[in-house]
Each structure stands twice: as C-alpha cells, then as structure tokens.
UniProtKB/TrEMBL annotation:
This is Methylenetetrahydrofolate reductase 2. Its cofactor is FAD. Belongs to the methylenetetrahydrofolate reductase family. The chain holds residues 5 to 321 of 561 of the full protein. It comes from the Eukaryota. One of its GO terms (cellular component) is cytosol. GO terms for molecular function: FAD binding; methylenetetrahydrofolate reductase [NAD(P)H] activity. Pathway: One-carbon metabolism; tetrahydrofolate interconversion. Coiled coil: none annotated. GO terms for biological process: methionine biosynthetic process; tetrahydrofolate interconversion.
Length: 317
C-alpha cells in the first residue's frame, strides 16, 4: 500500500474498496465481478474483512486470494487478534504470503471476552503488529485502524482522539506503515484528526498515509445504524439532505447519499487528502457514481492498461 500511494504524485487522488466474504458461492462470484469493475474504474487496492475470532477465516482467505491472483489487484487482508487461537492467525499469515498478498490490516477485533482463555499474548492491535513484524520481517506492509472521532470502547462519553493518540503512536512504533480510519460523516473531524496526527511530537505520524474511511449511504435506517455502531457524529449539514425527501424511498436516499459523500470528499480533497477507503458493503453502484462525480476514475485506469499482468510484478507496482 505504501509503495502504491508513494508512487502517486501529490495531486493524484485515489480510492480503495473494502469487501466482506459473502456466505454463498454465487455471492462470491457476483462479488468478484463487482470488484473487477471497481478495479477497472481505478481502485488502487482492495481489502477483505475478517470476522472477529476467525469465524470467517477460510472465506476471507479464499476471497483475498482470488482478488490478489485472479483480478491482480493488490489486496489487504484484515486480521484480528483477540478471542482467537494462534494457529488460525499463523495459518492466515502463511496462506496470505503463499498467495502473494503483501498487505495486512492489523486489528484488535472485539474487546477480549472474560470467558475466553486467551491462548496468546496478542491483546491489542499493537501486539499483532509486533508479532507480524517478528515473524515476517518486512514482507508485509501493515496497516492499522485510526479513529477520527476517537475509539468508543463501550462508553461514548469516553470517546476522545486525545485518549487514543498514544495507542495509535504505539501501533506505528511497533511497525505499522499506514492507517485507515473508521467511517465518519463529518469532514471537519477528519481534517482536525489528520492535523493532530501530523503534528504529534513523536513525529511518527508526520508523513504516513492516513486514509479516511467513508461508507456510501444505501438507506436511511442503515445510515443511522452505521453511525451508531461506529459512534460517528452525523452533522446537521448531512442530515439536512434528508429534510425534503422521503427517507423511506431508498432511491432518493441513495442519490442524496452520493451527494453527501461527494461533498465530504470535496472538503477532504481541498484540505489536501489524497485517498479514500470505501466501506462498500459489497455494493458497487454508489461507489462508482461517487468516484466518477469526484473525477477519481481516469488517472489510474489509463496507467493500469500499461501494467504487467503477472502477480509478482503487480506486487511491486
Ligand atoms: P486497538 O488499536 O488495539 O485499540 C482500540 C482502542 O482500545 C484504542 O484506541 C484505545 O482506546 C484502547 N486501547 C488500546 N490499547 C490499550 C491499552 N493498552 N490500554 C487501554 N486502552 C487501550 N473488526 C473486525 O472484527 N474485522 C475487521 O475486518 C475489521 N476491519 C476494520 C477496518 C477498519 C478500517 C477499522 C477502522 C476497524 C475495523 N474493525 C474490524 C473494527 C476493530 O476491530 C474495532 O474497532 C476494535 O474495537 C478496535 O480495533 P483496533 O485495531 O483499533 O484496536
């Protein structure tokens, strides 16, 4: 990821897409098609989620392998470390390496459960980053999660960027290379967060990619649910888009959602942000519309046509 981002000039914008493993074979085939089309539009890389505890381990690994090998798109494998056996983790890392996957997003996952007999010393994302570095050296480019509004472990009142910052710095000092943030709807919050990261006295966040996470809006209830789950504030300038439409009509809501995400992206671009990570929920159309409207399509597609086809060469592209 860092090589890809580093190869762009400062004014080039990029996007990447997150998918989760579908439950059925047909679902996987449909998703391969969607991913391929988003890659054709210029997605710089894609990522595949991992269910806490490793419940989706095989499905995640199979999907990530197909993205990397069949589509030839650099793929980020999400991995969590709590409530999970070490063998599952070791198997995932070995499988990823064998598949030519060079990127991992190292996460804690759900908070440790009291009843779970933790078999490893990997309690939080920082421990996972250090473990991957110890076992694999520099083979993997490692990403970690950031929280533009602070991480809300249970009590929303304790949510604060200041409280989180030392943990983010520790993850980076343990060996992380890039950051993808939790979704948000308030561009100003991300801009302030990025500034805080850049100015952190440790200096370790000065120049590393901090990729903002955005989720296209597919229905009004799903917007409210996603905001609640991720403890994201929905500012009035976003909510007012729904004042004059029927919030039960998903077509109208999606169209408003595209406008909302484009507005957020424009503010981010004006502040100098280059990239965006889309939480796609395995859907394609809104992402395609957003990147088209925000002029993020053309540059990479033109370059991609000249790309070598082998997975090995793509890994270093
Ligand atoms: P950490 O960085 O370990 O910590 C999270 C927070 O816990 C810190 O910010 C801090 O507030 C607190 N904390 C950490 N260490 C300490 C300490 N030593 N003492 C006290 N407090 C501490 N979850 C999944 O299950 N699967 C996925 O695929 C997945 N993908 C994600 C992708 C992105 C981009 C993001 C942002 C999140 C994703 N998550 C996923 C969710 C993630 O697992 C949760 O947000 C989890 O609660 C925290 O993970 P973390 O890696 O940020 O944890």
């Amino acid at each position: 990821v860092t090589e890809l981002v580093g190869s762009l000039s400062a004014d080039e914008k990029y996007f990447c897409c997150e998918f989760f493993p579908p439950k059925t074979e047909q679902g996987v085939e449909n998703l391969i098609g969607r991913c391929r089309r988003l890659v054709d539009l210029g997605a710089l890389f894609v990522s595949v989620t991992w269910a806490t505890g490793g419940a989706s381990a095989e499905q995640t690994l199979q999907l990530a392998t197909r993205f990397q090998r069949e589509i030839g798109v650099p793929t980020v494998l999400h991995l969590t470390c709590t409530n999970m056996d070490r063998e599952i983790l070791d198997h995932a890392l070995a499988t990823a390496k064998a598949a030519g996957i060079r990127n991992v997003l190292a996460l804690r996952g759900d908070p440790p459960r009291a009843e779970y007999k933790q078999q490893s010393e990997l309690h939080c994302a920082k421990d996972l980053v250090a473990y991957i570095r110890k076992e694999y050296g520099d083979y993997f480019c490692i990403g970690v999660a950031g929280y533009a509004e602070g991480h809300a472990d249970g009590a929303v009142s304790e949510q604060s960027v200041e409280k989180d910052m030392p943990f983010l710095v520790e993850k980076v000092q343990a060996g992380a290379d890039f950051i993808i943030t939790q979704l948000f709807y308030d561009a100003e919050k991300f801009i302030a967060y990025e500034k805080q990261c850049r100015e952190h006295p440790s200096g370790v966040l000065n120049s590393m990619p901090i990729i903002p996470g955005l989720m296209p809006i597919n229905s009004y209830p799903s917007l409210l649910r996603s905001a609640k789950l991720s403890s994201a504030n929905i500012p009035p300038c976003v909510l007012q888009h729904f004042d004059h439409i029927d919030t039960k009509d998903d077509v109208q809501v999606k169209a408003a959602g595209v406008k909302i995400i484009c507005d957020i992206l424009q503010k981010l671009h004006e502040s100098g942000t280059q990239g965006v990570h889309f939480y796609t929920l395995n859907l394609e159309k809104s992402v395609a519309e957003i990147v088209t409207k925000c002029n993020m399509v053309h540059m990479l597609r033109n370059e991609r046509e000249e790309l070598p086809s082998s997975v090995e060469s793509l890994a270093t592209w």
